[in-house]
């Protein structure tokens, strides 16, 4: 499949054979933490995704893709890049127009397009897109030599400031489907009803949850409990030991309970100050930055600083379990703006990895957009 768009540039469906060409134009992108080298071949096998390359004189000069989400009514554009010697020549626009034309011809059920950005879009872009969501980003580099000490420091900071937090519980696949609607309310934790997962803006549609299950996303949840006593975590993530506060009308003391028993009904509903907390951890993957370096994305949902800290700790500890000996981590944490100062303090003294400070989600009505 090809389409001659200019005398010099053609668009083709991407193939496995285009991998080296796409990597050649991607060198240095995202300061060495690019996801595409690791995901390219997996993306090719995804029936919900279409990938395209722009070629000039037989050489790859651009790449773009879209993923169908939300039950097939939304397309998320991902991975756009153009060779440095072709930037400013309109290649990106050609690729995106081709993507949109393909959506309209091959996927008529798609009514909207989303994409993410790391900075404010140009005014011309806002003629067709509008900003629907934003988050702050904190990122740190943790070397292999620092991993053990980093975990200890974060544990001590959690102990010092989060002594009334029940440790989050790991969610099995079946439990994820019961969260919304259920123990958690979307309007409390998900502004705009978005489950941002490593820069992918999706809803809680069942198909999207199934997709994240296939990707082995780690879910941790703190249920909306209102009377928190003194809490210490057990050695296993599946159980917690709770010393209930009898002043809150709960008679049990020092009782070990299963994660399956921790729900909103575990605690009295006299206070509504805590509405729950949720975190998603993407499986780590190696990045071009250097041998043994891995990227970890942690998306946080909620506004309680104490729970934000403990969720980061648990996600990081789970990731470290799967890290090969000698591996290091570039960790990205995506949060509500109100948590920025507090989590910056949580990571104080660590090595920053300053690449993104903001995460923006833009959306376009494909049915109304004029695409030439």
UniProtKB/TrEMBL annotation:
Highest taxon in the source lineage: Eukaryota
InterPro entries xref list: Acyl_CoA_acyltransferase, GNAT_dom, Hisat_C
GO molecular function ontology, one term from the record: acyltransferase activity, transferring groups other than amino-acyl groups
Residues of the N-acetyltransferase domain: 9-138
Protein name per its UniProtKB record: Histidine N-acetyltransferase-like
Organism of origin: Pelobates cultripes (Western spadefoot toad)
């Amino acid at each position: 499949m090809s389409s001659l768009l200019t005398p010099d540039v053609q668009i083709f469906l991407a193939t496995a054979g285009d991998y080296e060409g796409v990597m050649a134009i991607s060198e240095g992108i995202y300061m060495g933490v690019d996801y595409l080298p690791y995901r390219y071949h997996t993306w090719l096998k995804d029936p919900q995704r279409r990938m395209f390359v722009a070629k000039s004189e037989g050489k790859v000069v651009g790449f773009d893709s879209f993923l169908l989400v939300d039950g097939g009514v939304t397309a998320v554009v991902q991975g756009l890049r153009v060779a440095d010697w072709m930037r400013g020549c309109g290649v990106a626009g050609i690729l995106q127009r081709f993507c949109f034309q393909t959506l309209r011809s091959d996927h008529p059920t798609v009514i909207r397009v989303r994409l993410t950005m790391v900075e404010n879009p140009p005014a011309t872009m806002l003629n067709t897109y509008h900003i629907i969501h934003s988050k702050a980003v904190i990122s740190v580099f943790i070397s292999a030599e620092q991993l053990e000490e980093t975990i200890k420091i974060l544990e001590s900071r959690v102990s010092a400031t989060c002594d009334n937090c029940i440790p989050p519980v790991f969610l099995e696949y079946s439990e994820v489907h019961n969260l919304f609607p259920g123990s958690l309310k979307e309007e409390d934790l998900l502004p705009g009803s978005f489950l941002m997962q490593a820069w992918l803006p999706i809803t809680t549609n069942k198909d999207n949850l199934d997709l994240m299950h296939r990707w082995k996303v780690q879910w941790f949840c703190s249920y909306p409990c209102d009377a928190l006593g003194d809490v210490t975590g057990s050695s296993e993530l599946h159980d917690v030991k709770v010393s209930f506060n009898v002043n809150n009308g709960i008679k049990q003391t020092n009782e070990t309970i299963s994660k399956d028993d921790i729900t909103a009904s575990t605690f009295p509903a006299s206070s509504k100050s805590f509405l729950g907390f949720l975190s998603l951890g993407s499986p780590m993957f190696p990045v071009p930055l250097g041998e043994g370096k891995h990227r970890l994305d942690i998306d946080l949902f909620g506004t309680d600083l104490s729970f934000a800290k403990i969720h980061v700790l648990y996600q990081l500890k789970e990731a470290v379990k799967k890290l090969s000996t000698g591996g290091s981590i570039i960790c990205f944490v995506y949060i509500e703006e109100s948590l920025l100062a507090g989590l910056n303090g949580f990571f104080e003294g660590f090595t920053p990895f300053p690449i993104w400070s903001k995460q923006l989600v833009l959306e376009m009505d494909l049915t109304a957009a004029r695409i030439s």
